[in-house]
Design a protein that fits this description.
single chain, 446 residues, 22% strand, eight-stranded antiparallel beta sheet, 10 helices, alpha+beta, 37% helix
Length: 446
């Protein structure tokens, strides 16, 4: 199965740092030139009528940059740009397919990685055979560098970088290509190493219990299990910070000169906003699945959003679901983490579960006010937890056992902590995965 080690790296000297920066800057320049050639053909500009994006002379660009980056890195940068264009065409096709509702906004072609005047985004990709990693007390990464850069900085051999932290996946069968970039928000160089690990690294479910999730933005996840447990992960604070950052970005964009659409500060805010969300997502998936594993759950049902958005679409609902919480990305992350515990994740329709009264079955007489769902028959309960319970009963086609008092969690920028009004005190969580290591990778997210 596929997994990823993400870690910070540090140059061993000032000269090594400048060499690394030059390598990343040249990679960004190659990306921009490749992207420009393809964009001009896509827009039929500069006399390229009749030529498609794949007619761009990338071989000539590769030849110009291989003395700086090395032939393999030049190839990988161009290849990754090709993947970005293929992804764009695929998304564009989905957008114009009326039967496909997964893409709601018009896709844009791949963008540029900054520019020479304002500074390029320092980022590159290294082929799996062009770097080596040694894990241990003094973990290190060594990457291939082009001859021109080595001569410029009087350097011999590969560039050696110190790795901060321990890997999540130490024993892997093979490694993929390495992404290496400079995180401007934290002023840190970072790397992402895809790896393939054995299926033996997975855990074995303790029982055959089931769970259902209602995913939203005010409450990110409401979970009900057949063991009688309910978990609620609150998201108002996260969403408010997301909106505040978005407003700040809009204010800065309004002050830009005509013809400019971004700045260094705006790019940093976009990056910070995304990293904040991704860190909370990753931590939520890990915390929830550890709990479900201990509850003996082997199957998790997730409600698909297609029917919900068709029925209850609004600007705010769309912003929360797609922009803030990134539903598709979250479900993919959840499924990936669940593989470690051999817990299967299934997406099913959850239409009308948030309006259905669990007592009388009515959907047109119920009223939702903030977090409360009420019905003239006398029922009143938490709307999201009720929806997850109803959703679970639909999948099982039978009633579930009475629920214990729900356990509520809030995000403190590092962990999901249990709120005092939950029915049990905060507890120290442990990683029940069979692939447990002594330390976490120094991701810098906090």
């Amino acid at each position: 199965m596929k997994r990823t080690n993400t870690f910070a790296v540090r140059p061993l000297s000032n000269e090594g740092e400048q060499l690394l920066r030059d390598l990343l800057d040249a990679s960004a320049a190659l990306w921009n030139e490749t992207n420009y050639e393809r964009l001009m053909r896509y827009n039929d500009e500069d006399g390229f009528e009749g030529e498609g994006v794949w007619d761009a002379d990338t071989g000539q660009l590769e030849g110009r940059y291989k003395s700086v980056l090395g032939a393999s890195t030049s190839q990988q940068v161009i290849r990754k740009n090709s993947e970005a264009w293929r992804g764009f065409f695929k998304t564009k096709k989905q957008y114009h397919d009326k039967s496909n509702t997964s893409v709601t906004e018009h896709p844009e072609p791949p963008g540029f990685r900054g520019n020479e005047d304002e500074g390029r985004q320092l980022k590159t990709v290294i082929r799996n055979t062009s770097y080596t990693i040694e894990w241990g007390d003094r973990s290190r990464l060594e990457i291939l560098v082009g001859s021109e850069l080595k001569n410029r900085h009087d350097h011999t051999g590969r560039l050696r970088l110190e790795i901060a932290g321990d890997p999540n996946w130490l024993d892997y069968e093979k490694q993929g290509r390495l992404d290496l970039w400079y995180d401007e928000t934290d002023s840190t160089f970072r790397a992402s190493q895809p790896v393939t690990v054995s299926d033996d690294a997975r855990d074995t479910p303790l029982a055959d219990e089931k769970a259902a999730l209602d995913i939203g933005a005010n409450n990110l996840v409401a979970c009900t299990t057949t063991t009688g447990e309910q978990y609620l992960y609150e998201g108002r604070t996260l969403f408010q910070r997301f909106r505040d950052t978005t407003r700040h970005i809009a204010e800065l964009q309004s002050k830009l000169e005509d013809g400019r659409y971004s700045s260094e500060r705006i790019r940093q805010l976009y990056c910070k906003r995304t990293r904040r969300r991704d860190h909370a997502q990753e931590a939520l998936c890990r915390d929830l699945l550890e709990r479900l594993y201990e509850d003996g759950v082997d199957t998790v049902y997730i409600g698909g959003l297609t029917d919900v958005l068709d029925t209850h679409w609004s600007v705010e609902t769309n912003a929360k679901t797609h922009n803030f919480w990134a539903f598709k990305k979250f479900t993919e992350r959840l499924a990936c983490t669940a593989e470690e515990y051999s817990i299967s994740v299934t997406v099913r329709s959850e239409a009308w579960t948030s309006q259905e009264c669990p007592q009388c079955g009515s959907t047109d007489r119920t009223t939702r006010h903030q977090e409360t769902l009420s019905c003239p028959c006398g029922f009143e309960g938490h709307a999201d937890l009720t929806a997850s319970e109803t959703f679970l009963e639909r999948q099982l086609e039978q009633a579930v056992r009475p629920m214990a008092r729900p356990v509520r969690f809030e995000w403190d920028d590092h962990d999901w902590s249990e709120l005092p009004r939950s029915h049990r005190p905060k507890e120290q969580r442990t990683d029940s995965s069979t692939v447990h290591c002594d330390g976490n990778v120094a991701s810098g997210d906090s």
